[in-house]
Amino acid sequence: MKNLYIDFDGVILDTITPVYDLARKLNLDVKTQTKEVGLLYSKIDWEALIDESPALNDSINNIKKLKDSKKFNINILTHVNSLREAKAKIEFINGLFNDLTIIPVPKACSKTMMTQTKGAILVDDFSGNLKEWQESGGIAVKFVKDLENGKYTEITSLIELLDMNF
Description:
alpha/beta; Rossmann fold; 2 domains; 19% strand
């Protein structure tokens, strides 16, 4: 069984779009104003945001199918900006699955610092995380809305992992 780590934001739920929309309304640049954006993330009502955010490409049902395949040891590996965000994500996942490990990673830390990467798969929408993962001996899979023909293996749906040979 292969270790599979799935990112939360931008892979399971579309929480990124509403947060970026809010940042734009507040005239914050998410790429350069890191301190201000971090403060914004800490003030968000994460329970409400998660409740209102749509699943991406049937991700919840696809995680269930991946679990049923018994091909993967599935974990959720997610960056968090606050304990409140971590708690909301953990409660959401635990409400759907009673046997998945959720690993909240402080935003200032690399996901590679939180687990063994060698030979493990990371599905993430952010190339920076995938670069670090691959450099640490892991298998990087980029979750995209539309195929980009980029540097990493790309999928538009988690179910595609079942057809891949790792």
